[in-house]
Automatic annotation (TrEMBL):
GO BP terms: nitric oxide catabolic process
Uppermost EC category: oxidoreductase
Annotated source species: Sarcophilus harrisii
InterPro entries, per the entry: Globin, Globin-like_sf, Globin/Proto, Globin_lamprey/hagfish
Any one GO molecular-function label of the UniProt entry: iron ion binding
Ranges for domain Globin: 18-167
Acetylation keyword on record: no
Swiss-Prot/TrEMBL catalytic activity: Fe(III)-heme b-[protein] + nitric oxide + H2O = Fe(II)-heme b-[protein] + nitrite + 2 H(+); Fe(II)-heme b-[protein] + nitric oxide + O2 = Fe(III)-heme b-[protein] + nitrate; H2O2 + AH2 = A + 2 H2O; 2 superoxide + 2 H(+) = H2O2 + O2
Name of the protein in question: Cytoglobin
Cellular location(s): Cytoplasm; Nucleus
EC number, as in UniProt: 1.15.1.1
Subunit and interaction comment: Monomeric. Homodimer; disulfide-linked in vitro. Also homooligomeric in vitro.
Record's function text: Probable multifunctional globin with a hexacoordinated heme iron required for the catalysis of various reactions depending on redox condition of the cell as well as oxygen availability. Has a nitric oxide dioxygenase (NOD) activity and is most probably involved in cell-mediated and oxygen-dependent nitric oxide consumption. By scavenging this second messenger may regulate several biological processes including endothelium-mediated vasodilation and vascular tone.
Length: 186
């Protein structure tokens, strides 16, 4: 996002976040196919996230000891969290026509993760990238570049709303700092 002082920054950010009707439909159509297999896709997302970014497990006492992907896949706690992640995403996708609802849902997620769970916000950017990877694989036969761009735009919407919630609650980076490669963020 380009930094513009004052109200222009907010206005420009909101304009850049809006998905067109065509983009909303592409995201919702893709999501319907993915969400039909909600639990398995959610578990695949979290397992890939924790395998590729094991430092993220520090926030999950109930399964931070799990090392092997098969162990993670079979964990009832991980499966439960996968369903929560997929449920939140489903609420966002179903309400893309209602920016206030999307903002409200993502503000709740952001505030809970900042205040209660103390999760560094960078993990949302990383997780959203993993989500896009898994969705692209799940829809490999029908995931044209326009749909990919729509999902990338939604990723930006999600991250900007979540980080706005962190800022709203006065988030200060927690110590110790995490060691995440710059490449993982893009």
């Amino acid at each position: 996002m380009e930094k513009v002082p004052g109200e222009m920054e907010i206005e420009r950010r909101e304009r850049s976040e809006e998905l067109s009707e065509t983009e909303r439909k592409a995201v919702q159509d893709t999501w319907a196919r993915v969400y039909a297999n909600c639990e398995d896709v959610g578990v695949a997302i979290l397992v890939r996230f924790f395998v590729n970014f094991p430092s993220a497990k520090q926030y999950f006492s109930q399964f931070q000891h799990l090392e092997e992907p098969l162990e993670m896949e079979q964990s009832p706690q991980l499966r439960k969290h996968a369903l929560r992640v997929m449920g939140a995403l489903n609420t966002v996708v179903e309400n893309l026509h209602d920016p206030d609802k999307v903002s409200s849902v993502l503000a709740l997620v952001g505030k809970a993760h900042a205040l209660k769970h103390k999760v560094e916000p960078v993990y949302f950017k990383i997780l959203s990238g993993v989500i896009l990877e898994v969705i692209a694989e799940e829809c490999a036969n029908d995931f044209p570049s326009e749909t990919q761009r729509a999902w990338s735009k939604l990723r930006t919407v999600i991250y900007s709303h979540v980080t706005a919630a962190y800022k709203e609650v006065g988030w200060v980076q927690q110590l110790p700092t995490t060691n995440i490669s710059h490449a993982a963020l893009f």
